[in-house]
Amino acid sequence: MSSDGTPVDARPWPGLDVVGLRILVVGFGVSGYAVADQTMQRGASVIVVDAADTPRHRERARILEVFDVEVRLGAEHTLALPEDADVDLVVTSPGWRPDQPLLAQAAAAGIPVWSEVELARRMQAPDGPAWLGVTGTNGKTTVVTMLETILRAEGLRAVACGNVGLPVIEAALDPEGFDVLAVELSSFQLHWTQHVDCEAAAVLNITEDHLDWHGGLEAYARAKGKIFEGVRVACVFNTADDLTRRLVEDADVVEGARAVGVTLGAPGPSELGVVDDLLVDRAFVEDRRRQAAELGSLADLAHLGPHGAPPHVVFNALAAAALARAHGVSQAAVREGLRAFRSGSHRSEIVAVGTGIAFVDDSKATNPDAARASLLGMEHVVWIAGGDTKGADVDTLVAEVSGRLRGVVLIGSDDTPFREALERHAPAIPRVRVPAGDTEDPEGRSRLMREAVDAAAGLARDGDAVLLAPAAASIDQFTDYAERGDLFAAAARAATGTQDAEDTQEPDGPEGRA
Fold this sequence. Notes:
Layout: E1 22-26, H1 30-41, E2 45-50, H2 55-65, E3 70-73, E4 89-92, H3 101-108, E5 113-115, H4 116-123, E6 130-135, H5 140-153, E7 158-162, H6 168-172, E8 180-184, H7 187-191, E9 200-203, H8 211-214, H9 217-225, E10 234-238, H10 242-250, E11 258-262, E12 271-275, E13 278-281, E14 293-297, H11 311-326, H12 331-340, E15 349-354, E16 357-361, H13 368-375, E17 381-385, H14 395-401, E18 405-410, H15 416-425, E19 431-433, H16 442-459, E20 465-468, H17 481-496
Parallel strand pairs: 1-2, 1-4, 2-3, 4-5, 6-8, 6-9, 7-8, 9-10, 10-11, 11-12, 16-20, 17-18, 17-20, 18-19
Antiparallel strand pairs: 12-13, 13-14, 15-16
Helix pairs in contact: 5-11, 5-12, 9-10, 14-15, 16-17
Protein name: UDP-N-acetylmuramoylalanine--D-glutamate ligase
EC number: 6.3.2.9
Pathway: Cell wall biogenesis; peptidoglycan biosynthesis
């Protein structure tokens, strides 16, 4: 019960009033800080707990404590609910598993456990911004940032948020008010979310990822599919991925919501696809059987790869266009937005070129399927791979790309999955293992990446690419994928004597991945 005697789940929403609500925020990362800040401002009583007692956390704690938010740092505070305070609602950071002791205790006690996304959806005013949601194993960030660019080309106040950019709660409660939110949602966020209620949503693809967290592919896919719950206009799926279609079929949507397919082939009715070199919409037209709308051409995406946009980028553009069209965006704005879009950092970004070798940062390729997209876009590549595989199988990936490998440099605290796959499928390919060393301090992490880049450069030939596409998460050795990519870029520029990729001429070699 809340302080006014009303169960939290029974309070009217959207527009949930948190005045007097006693909220426990579990995890003090970006979303945890945002939840504490936004709910404190609206009259909630807030306690934050996190196992990590770091200088950054202590600095944030000092800011919030001025406004009577209590922050408790240290592992002992995350083992159980606080004994000295009643709790109406637990808001958890996305990476915390359901079997974490505090969360399990809260669930057993009947205390709601929500994600930041769930809280944001409930607190947003009824006339607040529309949500266009995106999830999938790969391509999420590219699609939401493409979507943001398209929406802005239409003249809408729009922002990419969620698993990228602003926390959802900050975007949903922004005092100036957005028209539309392009919301990227991870499987972790969706696991803890009961009501997404998007105007339109897309599941781009489902491949093995985070299986150790979810316990298997079925549970992982089920979490992804929650993004379709409550959709009002369109559920966008990948016609080449039957699992995404089944998630649409199983979803509880608002009556009248339609399934909209995205294909790289010629589209059928209620699909977007490619005809010759044109991006074509047969879903959001008056007569889907007889009409089609031209949204742009492959030439409008040519800037997204040295040899034009690779297929997965074209697919991402079509998915973003489908969501924008579901919101009523014009054909002209779709084309203008795609022309204006630029891919972000750590997504097949050429960071240095020297002696005929391109150094490409795709640190965002944190699973085998994402790495496959980069590797298959290159003819000859020295691959820097390794990290925390999260239970995913790398054997199929290695077998598929072995013919393109000039050499492999392995990082990661445990290289066993990669080493065994290479021994089976590419035993003759030169391989270098970079010792894990001490990566607790920044210099140790920097040294590791310098050694990896130097080893890769030694294996590369004129016209090759050195590609950081680890096919694994970074958490075993780096702060995050961004630090891993930044250190790679710095080492590549040092090795080639260049300052910045923008100061170099892009080679004729590798195609990029958004």
